[in-house]
Amino acid sequence: MNRTRGSALVARILQVAVLTFGIIAPVAAAAENKPTSNFRKPAYDAEMQYWLENMIWHHRFTDAEVAAATGLTTKEIDAAKKKFDIRVDNRPEEKTGSMLKVLPYPGGRHPRIGFLEGAIDPQRETKFSVFTPWDRDSYAVLDIPEAIWSNLGLTYLAHTHIDTIWTKKGITLPKLEWKRLPGGKLEVERELPNGIAFGAKIKPTKDAVRMEMWMRNGTKERLTGLRVQNCVMPKMAAGFAKQSNDNKVLTNPYVACRSDDGKRWIITAWEGCHRPWANPDCPCFHSDPKFPDLAPGETSHLRGWLSFYEGTDIEAEFERIEATGWRASKPQALGMVGQAIPK
Fold first, then answer.
1. Per-residue pLDDT tens digits for 116-131
2. Which whole number is the average pLDDT over 201-210?
3. What local confidence, expressed as pLDDT, does residue 342 receive?
4. Cβ neighbours of 63 (radius 10 Å)
5. Is the pTM above the cut of 0.90?
6. How far is Cα 148 from Cα 168, in angstroms, rounded to an integer?
7. Pairing with 249, which of 8, 53, 201, 241 sits 20 to 30 Å away (CA)?
8. What pLDDT does residue 95 have?
């Protein structure tokens, strides 16, 4: 094999590795110890310990995935694991009957199986993992929000794909992190360069994860067409990663994914849902909401839900969830027409 063909083959192998596993540093740059552009290196010991526990104990990351998420070298990872005594085999036991486990998603492992070219460099500040109550190693990754559309165009996107109104101007948004609060709660807030602000609040309970999104119009003009994509990706939930829509049930606002054995379900819903849908390639499923139009200075809130169900009568489970009164109000009559990020 000549040098040109060999270099091309290596480049193609690296490209496949990036698209398949979402890891760049360990494959393409490990020999030179060069981190990825989207890594987050822990700034001090307490953060280092937290993220190593998050990645190794709970998300079961390999050292290569830890490197991709943190930018650390293999030597640094080994030293940190020894310092804090963090190993795959010494994870503490979970308390029975406790709240559903919710953790910020660390990046370093792509949350999709397929259509990875449509989600390059996923940003971790919108993503969190919810672990299943029946298997502590299985989890779904939620992207809240994955995208926001408005009359201005694609106003926010939590990865690189098609242009947003900011990338068209050459503006790079700053990296953020989830704020970790007592009780496993998470919060994040972002203000865009034009004054639009939005955020999410995540609250785990024993039987469900309660979510809230808010948006504030900090511009001088009325905002309309405020459509949101909120994504649930079950790649890492055992029995739920089938690349098909045959295992999905869409009943506005409820969208559910069924396990391969037909006995378990992951359910999500948002008030103001204007488009329940699923994509088999990723795979993922959505209950996508829409905010009402916002006058300058106005703020609006939407509530969301995610839960797990063991049984076969999913329609009865939807009714049970509805009876909890999780929605602040009845969904607005928003219609079913909306533009989605190509997925």
1. 999 999 999 999 999 9
2. 97
3. 53
4. 16
5. no
6. 16
7. 201
8. 78
Q: Which two tokens stand for residue 157?
A: 């996107």
Which residue, 216, 271, 272, 282, is CA-closest to 248? Answer: 282
d(Cα 32, Cα 303) in Å, to the nearest integer? Answer: 46
- pLDDT recorded at residue 31: 32
Which conformational region is residue 88 in: left (phi greater than 0), alpha (psi within -120 to 50 degrees), or beta? alpha
Whole-angstrom distance, CA of residue 155 vs CA of residue 280: 25
The radius of gyration computed from the CA coordinates of the chain, to the nearest angstrom, equals 20
172 φ, ψ to 5°? -100, 125
Q: State in Å, rounded, how far the first CA of the chain is from the last one.
A: 37
Alpha carbons 328 and 305: distance in angstroms, whole number: 12
The per-residue DSSP string of 255-300 comes to EEEE-TTSSEEEEEEETTEEEEEEETTTTEEEEEEBPPPB-TT-EE
pLDDT digits (tens, 9 = 90+) for 294-324: 999 999 999 999 999 999 999 999 999 999 9
Average pLDDT over residues 76-97: 92
Give me the domains of the chain, ranges plus CATH numbers.
3-90 (no CATH), 102-323 (2.70.98)
Instruction: Count other Cβ atoms within 10 Å, centred on residue 44.
Output: 7
- Of 281, 259, 343, the C-alpha closest to 114 is 281
DSSP annotation of 223: B
φ, ψ for residue 128 (rounded to 5)? -145, 155
Higher pLDDT, 265 or 24: 265
